[in-house]
Protein 1
Amino acid sequence: TFIKTEGKEKKGDEETVTTNYTSYSYQWNTNPETGGNWTWAQIDALQIGVQLRKADDLVATRCTQVYTEVSFEAPPLTGSTPTGDLFEVTAHDDYSGDLQVRVYLVNTDSVMKAYDYLNMQLYLEGSAEAGETLNLTNGVVTFNLVGISGGSYTLEVTGGDYTLNSRESDEWEEGYIVTPELYCEVTQR
């Protein structure tokens, strides 16, 4: 077997053939030129073939068919936002009053190069709003802790979803980031 990828020729194992028709195969789980997983672009540009030698003047070497079987598991285009605790807002034991908590998505420009759509459902324990949705459009959500007396309040991601711009990261704009960076600001009211 013989392939051409990234402009370079690669050979599979040499096979000793018999006088009977039979199947021979070779498998490349990763791209032998890059050493990494195959991308769709590399699969689309892949060239395959065989290299035959005549073993004997009396015995012809024949090939009746050459084909490629591709098993490609594309990364999911959509999915659920990971959940979990983000920040712990702790008021001093002597504090009594209101706090406003704002959560900013600070790397929106870079994240938008990878995501077409991103929603993060945020929940702040004890807040008047309870749940708010932070996304690529609004970039900030606000919670109000009203009439508190000290204590700690957990801000967490309770759900959400996303859609990537493409399954192939090499098709994303240069400078993309897949991990949203969040900034939490707490002020007295």
Note: The chain has a mean pLDDT of 90.
Protein 2
Amino acid sequence: MKKSILSAIVGFVLGIIFLGGVVFLAAPGLMITEDISPLNYEDTVGAIQESAVELGWKVPKTYQLDASVVEAGYDVLPATVIELCHPDHAGKVLSEDAARVVTSLMPCRIAVYETSDGSVIISRMNSGLVSKVFGGTVTEVMSRASAENEVILSAVLP
């Protein structure tokens, strides 16, 4: 009896360790979504900005990350982060104290960067998945915003 209980406990612990390892290895691929753009770097950035505005989103700021680090003496490939904000979505989150916990994730961001092989990558957080942890208004708003961001990107991605 003691032997079977000990075996069950060891099996359970090993199962937890294995599952933790799988989650650890899979998490980056689930948290960040990346696609290869069929357009060049500049056209990709421009098309995303234009599509966002056409769909009622604001583009409050665009960061040229490569320019910042080139000034510090680094030789890097182009990398831009585009901020996207939809006032209705932001208003719902900011109107509720419990939902404001995700303020540090606002506004939505889409990154465009070039790789050493010349590919142009569009990268963004899978905010629809991340939102499920919070529930309530956060899940509702972030899931909707995530889906709308994919519509914005449909102007670029096939």
Note: The mean pLDDT is 89.
